[in-house]
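Dear H.,

Thanks for agreeing to be a second pair of eyes. The structure we're designing against is below in token form, covering all 280 positions.
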């Protein structure tokens, strides 16, 4: 017997062929499965990647946000426009109110200025009459006094002898005694001197010029010593008279004197005239 026959072998026992084949088949199947799984893995992962529609969701959200921002901006613009319109309306109303107040102020100022000018004109007229009377008194002296005295001495007969148109003129001017004097007045309740004379003669169908200067040359010049009821008396020069009245007989005349006295009946000595004209 060999000495080596009893020495155990360290070599692994050989496996039999069927088991080895089986194991090889199992291992190959596992490896195939792994390979298939590995190959199928990307194919299965790809749909997941493709089905994530984040860009589409993000685009829709961006559109909604943009539309919301645009709507908000439009509301802001509308509010701003409305605020501007309200401010413009308030400014226009303020401007209109200011313009109205200014117009009222100007109207009041104009009215006051007209009143002041009228008062000044009346004062100037009174002063002019006073100066003219002083001049006439100094220049005419006794001749005017003689004429007035003659007219006064024949007053009763002259007054009673007024008939026809002259009587109507006298009745007209006497009916206005007590009315107010207003520069430029032509009636029916306020007059200036020439307006009263013109209206009196118009009542009998005689048209006279409107102003005293022209009325002092409208008829035939007559002496103050030969006056008749209905004659026109004037103060100042012929053609430049500043005042007129109507002789009513009895040494009296009626005239719209000034704003203080109005229409009055006075004796010739109250304010001696400088001349007279006869129209009737």
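And this is the sequence the design step returned. I haven't edited it by hand at all.
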């Amino acid at each position: 017997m060999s000495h080596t026959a009893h020495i155990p072998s360290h070599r692994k026992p050989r496996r039999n062929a069927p088991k080895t084949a089986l194991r090889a088949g199992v291992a190959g199947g596992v490896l195939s499965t792994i390979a298939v799984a590995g190959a199928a893995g990307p194919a299965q992962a790809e749909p997941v990647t493709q089905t994530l529609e984040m860009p589409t969701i993000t685009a829709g959200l961006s559109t909604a946000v943009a539309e919301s921002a645009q709507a908000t901006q439009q509301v802001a613009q509308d509010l701003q426009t409305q605020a501007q319109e309200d401010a413009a309306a308030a400014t226009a109303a303020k401007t209109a109110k200011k313009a109205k107040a200014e117009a009222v102020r100007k109207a009041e100022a104009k009215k006051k200025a007209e009143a002041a000018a009228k008062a000044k004109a009346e004062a100037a007229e009174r002063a002019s009459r006073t100066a003219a009377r002083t001049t006439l008194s100094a220049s005419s002296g006794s001749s005017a006094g003689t004429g007035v005295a003659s007219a006064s001495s024949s007053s009763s007969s002259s007054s009673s002898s007024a008939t026809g148109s002259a009587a109507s003129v006298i009745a007209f001017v006497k009916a206005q005694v007590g009315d107010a004097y207003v520069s430029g007045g032509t009636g029916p309740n306020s007059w200036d001197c020439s307006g009263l004379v013109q209206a009196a003669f118009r009542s009998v169908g005689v048209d006279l010029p409107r102003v005293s200067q022209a009325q002092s040359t409208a008829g035939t010049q007559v002496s103050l010593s030969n006056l008749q009821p209905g004659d026109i008396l004037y103060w100042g020069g012929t053609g430049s008279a500043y005042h007129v009245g109507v002789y009513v007989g009895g040494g009296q005349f009626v005239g719209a004197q000034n704003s203080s006295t109005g229409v009055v009946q006075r004796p010739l000595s109250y304010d001696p005239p400088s001349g007279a004209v006869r129209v009737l």
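Two observations from my side: The radius of gyration is 64 Å. The CA atoms of residues 64 and 70 lie 10 Å apart.

Warmly,
E.
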